[in-house]
Sequence to fold (260 residues):
Amino acid sequence: MNLDPDIALALRLADAAGAAIRPYFRSGLIADRKGDATPVTLADRAVEEAMRAILKAESPEDTVIGEEFPTTAGTSRRSWVLDPIDGTAGFLAGRAMFGTLIALVVEGFPVLGVIDQPITNERWVGAVGRKTTLNGREVRARACAALANATLATTGPHYFDDHEGAHFMGLAAKTDYRRMVMGGDCYNYAMLATGQLDVVCEANLKLHDWAALVPVVEGAGGTMSDWNGEPLHAGSDGHVLAVGDPARLEDVVEALACGH
Fold:
């Protein structure tokens, strides 16, 4: 699979997204609420519109799935999956830990992913059969000899229901909970791919939340799965794990299953 043209297109999308985001950052932007009560801003919509315009012009045969606008159906078996600002709450708080997520999904499985942080000018690119890069330099997830040594991250406990929260705490109890990280959204996965975190655990994610993360994490030597350890695909239920050292995946899944 020659992904070179797709990578070049994804980088143009990220450039356009960053140009649209920067004027809004720390500008006092006011958020609206979507149907699920999550915040959305003019920036979210402007960024997705900028990326969609490029895809309409350059890749009209592909489906486009985004967070803010209805899906545009294509005629190919390929889908571009876009999250213009993953971490809108952090963006509104002036924290540079959000990111633009761009994924290419073929027959339900992500083959290309970009995590772009336009304020710090950090860009992670992952693709099937290639090493993940940060600004063109190869990065790698770190080894973790035992789950007890692992640093765990999640966006926040409020994204878990009581049942999920109990399982998460079962996992947390098996890790080095004194170093557990809350907040971060997609940036946690970028940090895992760069060897700064060991495990990320989340629930209730949609395709646009995680599709771009899979090639980035796996191209750095990590693994992503659902809470049962099964590979993620377009039909997955939104329970997402990222593990920097694949040797610890079984331990993570077991600890989650034991939580109650």
About this structure: The CA atoms of residues 63 and 73 lie 5 Å apart. The chain has a mean pLDDT of 94.
